[in-house]
Design goal:
alpha/beta; Nucleotidyltransferase, domain 5; 5-stranded mixed beta sheet; 40% helix; 15% strand; globular; Transposable element Tc3 transposase; nucleic acid binding; RNaseH_sf
């Protein structure tokens, strides 16, 4: 579909959740940094520290969110955020223009009510587990939030050694606001090359560029 329909990739809103820990560090194994300087390579160590769960959407038009989850993300909590926060923000950015909404196969996303909501509001235009367009499981190399956004935001936020969850949340929002539209466009465009590399490798791991 990517190759047959020029512009399709630019119409996708990629989405994902991540957990941010107080005084944490970031595992950049799957991350590519789209800036002029290379980030420091660190490892994830903040296992038992307090933290917050964050959802964000990424597209060639900008970021949607970030939005903060309180506590464990369940299907019902995710559905509530979709209806009350995420979709209103998407409509504010896209208006009446068409878009495709992507999500991975995490259990909250696969909840029956979540899939019913997406079917009702995005007939044929969402990507994910058992959706109109399937998305390959365990594919962080093809997901911009995995290979770019979370590592970039955590790298910047964790430099500041925040010890308060509300300040941590403010820092996350501030870093997201600093990411330029040009960087997001290049990030989404890179998925085409990554997808072709994945096809050429018959679905196996491929060399990143």
């Amino acid at each position: 579909m990517v190759i047959r329909e020029p512009g399709f990739m630019g119409s996708i809103i990629w989405s994902d959740e991540a957990q941010f820990k107080l005084n944490g560090t970031v595992n950049r194994h799957n991350c590519v940094y789209w800036g002029e300087e290379n980030p420091h390579i660190t490892s994830e160590k903040a296992v038992n520290l307090p933290g917050i769960n964050v959802w964000c959407g990424l597209s060639s038009r900008g970021l949607i969110g970030p939005f903060r989850f309180e506590g464990t993300v369940t299907g019902i909590i995710y559905l509530t955020m979709l209806a009350d926060s995420i979709f209103p923000a998407i409509r504010a950015l896209y208006g009446n223009d068409d878009f495709y909404f992507q999500q991975d196969g995490a259990p909250p996303h696969y909840h029956r009510d979540v899939r019913a909501y997406l079917d009702q509001n995005l007939s044929g235009q969402w990507i994910g587990r058992r959706g109109p367009i399937e998305f390959p499981a365990r594919s962080p190399d093809l997901t911009p939030l995995d290979f770019f956004l979370w590592g970039t935001v955590k790298d910047e936020v964790y430099k500041r050694k925040t010890r308060n969850l509300d300040i941590l949340w403010n820092e996350i929002q501030a870093v997201c606001r600093e990411i330029s539209l040009d960087v997001l466009i290049r990030c989404t465009e890179s998925v085409v090359t990554r997808t072709q590399n994945c096809i050429d490798a018959a679905g196996h791991q491929f060399e990143q560029y």
